[in-house]
Amino acid sequence: MNRFIQTISIVCSLSAAFIFSGCKKSEEKKPEGAPQATASTSKTLRRGDIAPQSRPEIQVQGEPVREFEKGKLYVFACWATWSDPSVRAISQLNQFHRNLNSQGVVVTGISIWEADAEGDKPEISASSVRSFIASGRSEKIEYALAVTGKSFYNDWVRNGGVFEVPYIFVVNGDGVLLWTGKPDALTEDMLKYYLTYKP
Hints:
The protein is 36% helix and 17% strand. By secondary structure, the chain is of the alpha/beta class. It has a single domain, classed as 3-Layer(aba) Sandwich (Glutaredoxin). The longest helix is centred in the first third of the chain and has 22 residues, at 2-23. It is globular, with a radius of gyration of 20 Å.
């Protein structure tokens, strides 16, 4: 009798696990080039490090960030046009730009995983971003936009352990990486604090 109960218990547990795994649904459809989330993602670029010198390959809108300037704060927001969370974050980034640009906060959206996996087709990716802007699928993007290239991808995205978008890097005018993470964990008050923060 005990063996029968144990067998039934095991079968029920396995069935529940199978049903649960079948019910899991991805929030968005990623293109072939987008990496899948894994727990083993290595991360060599961390908060407190000097930010890489590499910059995005193509500037689609606004002025490029060539050098970090003292007294300013730089928000690099990695995103993709196919990512619903990235599109939803546009409103928040517009607000950062509107309210804090005059105080020295520079917001740049950087498209990654658009038409390629590792930034090796920036021209095609830039075309996709321009088409997205023209489509009216989101509110108008008011901040600068750029497209990753191979160097930026390797130095920031891969070394930063980024495996999903949107994802933000915050760098001060001395080129120190102060913060990384998802947009919903970043606030205007935090950006104001980082404007004068000395690590």
